[in-house]
Amino acid sequence: MGNIIYNNSSFTVAAGESVLDTLLKAGVQVPFSCRAGVCQSCVMVLKQGAVPPRALEGLSQAQREQQLFLSCCCYPEQAIQVEHYDPRASGVKALVVAKQQLSRTVLELTLDAPIAYQAGQHTNLWRSESIARCYSIASTPEDPHLSFHIALQKGGQFSQWALTSLQPGDTLTIQQARGECYYRSEHAGQPLLLVGTGTGLAPLQAIVRAAIAAGHWGEITLIIGARNSDELYFSEPLRQLERQHSNVTCTQLAQQIDNSDVKNVRQADIYQYVKHHFPDLNSHLVYLCGADTFVSKLRKQCFFAGVKPRNVYTDAFLPAS
Question: Is residue 17 part of a domain?
Answer without folding.
Answer: yes
